[in-house]
Amino acid sequence: MTAPALRFPAEWELQSAVLVAWPHAGTDWATRLADVETSYVALIGAIARFETVVVCVADDDLRRHAARLLEAAGIPAAHVHFVQVEYDDTWLRDSGPISLRGDDGFRLLDFRFNAWGDKFAATRDDRLVKALFAQGIFHNAQRERIDFALEGGAIETDGAGTLLSTWYCLRARHPDLDRGTIESRLCATLRQQRLLWLDHGALEGDDTDAHIDTLARFADPHTIVYQACDDPNDAHHDALQRMAIELAALRTLAGKPYRLFPLPWARPIIDEGRRLAASYANFLIVNGAVLMPAYDDPSDTIAASVLERAFPDREIVPVACRSLIWQNGSLHCLTMQLPDGLIEANAND
What we know:
Blueprint lengths: L5 E2 L7 E7 L11 H16 L3 E6 L2 H13 L7 E5 L7 H4 L2 E5 L2 E8 L2 H4 L4 H4 L1 H7 L6 E9 L6 E2 L4 E5 H7 L5 H12 L3 E5 L17 E5 L2 E5 L9 H13 L9 E5 L6 E2 L2 E2 L8 E3 L2 E6 L4 H12 L4 E6 L10 H4 L1 E4 L10
Parallel strand pairs: 2-3, 3-4, 6-7, 9-10, 12-13, 17-18
Antiparallel strand pairs: 1-5, 2-19, 5-6, 8-9, 11-12, 14-15, 16-17
C-alpha cells in the first residue's frame, strides 16, 4: 500500500491556532515574572485578534491566574483554550510539534528535544508533544516520534519543498554527521525537495547556535526577509554581511534569485553586562497578520515598514519583546502555529 503523501505547510498558510506555554515560578522567568507575564498578555492578545490561542499551563492554579490576567486585559475567553501539561520551559517553537498535512489528516513530528545541545534540563519538554497528544486536543492527527535532535526554530519551509537552515546549528546538534547525511535525513523526514544552507550569521545572546528564525525567513516561495546589520563597528557586521551575500546567491526552484528584504539593526540592548539578541526576523505569521517583535528602538518603525512591503496583504502588529529577549528568544521562539484543521475552531474548556 502506498504511504499517504504528506506536506510541510508554510507558516503563512491558514492556521487553526497558535500554541504557547504560560511562564511560572518554576521556569527561568521566575525572577522577572511580572514583566514577562505582561508581555505574554500582550502576545496572546495580539494572536487572539486573529485566531485561537492554545495556552499550556502547569496546574489549575496557574490556569486560573493566567485566565484572570487575560480577562482583565479584555481578551475574549472564547479565543483562548487552556491545556494542563508539564513543561520545563516555554520555548514551544523548539519543543512543540512540527505538523505535516496529508490527505488523510496530520502527522505530528515529535523530534528529540535536547535543550539546544544539552545546555539545560529538558526531560519534560522532550515529552511535551506526547503529553499534548494524549490530551486529545489535536484533530485527525497521528504522532510520530523522530529520534533525531531538531528544534522548530532551526528550520524554515516555503511550503513548496524548500527548507532553509544554518549549518552551524545542525552541525552543533549532530557533530558526528556530515552535511549530506543531515540534509538527506531532514528532507526525507520533512518531505522536502532540497535544503538551502547558510554558513554565516549568528547573534550574541542567542544560545540556540544560530537558529534560522533569528536570521532569515520566507515570506512566500520567492521572498526572504532577513536580519541585516549596517553598523560597520558592530561585532555582527561581518557575519551578517556574509550571510546577505549567501542569500543573494540562493535561487528558487525555478532558478530565479529570491526577492530579499533586509531588516534594520536595533541598537545594542545590554542587560547586566550581557548583550541580548534583538532580532526583527523573529516575527510570527498568523491569519491575516504578522506579529513583529518590537524593542522600544527607533528601528521598530523601519522594521514594520519592511514587513509591510514583504507582506502587503497582512496587518503588521508590533508586540513589545524587550522583556522576552532577556531569556535569549523573542515571540517566534515562544510560539508554534498549528495548521488549519488540527485544532477544532474556538475550542474551549
